[in-house]
Amino acid sequence: AIANFGMMIWAPIYLQRSFGLSASQTGIWFGLVNGIASALGVWLGGQFGDRLMQRGKQHLLTVPAVAVALASPLLVLGLLAPQWPGAMVLFFPGLLCLWVLVGPCYSAVQGLVPATSRATASASILLMQNLFGLGLAVPVIGWLSDHFKPEWGTDSVRYVLVAVVSIVPLAAAGLLWSARKYLPEELDREG
């Protein structure tokens, strides 16, 4: 959620500041890239998660772990692209990979809680995503961008986003990969 919401909110500002795009250009191009990538990523994550889980329950988290790890270099390259069309080309697969985790992770959580707690589990996930993604990450990215603006100028938001998408998705991928070990046993546990 941190990288996702950080990119969703601050990538348009980066595109405007670093490349001089207007708000309408940014809205059209980034809106299309993010909208299509997120929808396709969620759908593909569900498809790959269901298919790979037939090979073993741990693979429900293999899909998001690998996808989120792949997102990091794609987004970094997009943020460092010398022209905005190149950034968009790299943002598309990077954002798609960030969204791949939604279906498999929600499925894993639904399998880990009793049927009577599934609504609460889903609400808890959404609450945490919004608290950390929107409530924490977005203002911290803005503060860091302002803090580094004297040194980095209009590219401050670019470099703060580079730091965020370099660290957060790889950390998340590592945690997801580690959780794979315990998932089959936890999904099979009664009560």
Keywords:
191 residues, mainly alpha, 8 helices, elongated
Question: Would you kindly provide a brief summary of this structure?
Answer:
The protein is mainly α. It is built from eight helices and no strands. The protein starts with a helix and ends with a helix.
SSE map:
Layout: H1 2-19, H2 23-53, H3 59-79, H4 84-99, H5 102-112, H6 118-152, H7 156-179, H8 183-188
In total, how many beta strands? 0
Shape: elongated
For this structure, the quaternary state is single chain
Question: Describe the biggest sheet?
Answer: none
The run of helices and strands is: HHHHHHHH
Q: What value does the average pLDDT take? A: 94
The percentage helix is: over 70%
Radius of gyration: 18 Å
| Termini separation | 29 Å
**Helix/strand-derived class?**
mainly alpha
Q: How much β-strand is present in the residues?
A: under 5%
Taking pLDDT < 50 over at least 5 consecutive residues as the criterion, the unreliable ranges are none
Contiguous helical run count: 8
Write a structural description:
With 191 residues, the chain is mainly α. It is built from 8 helices and no strands. Helix 3 packs antiparallel against helix 7 and helix 6 runs antiparallel to helix 7. The longest helix is centred in the C-terminal third of the chain and has 35 residues. The chain is elongated. The two termini are 29 Å apart. The mean pLDDT is 94.
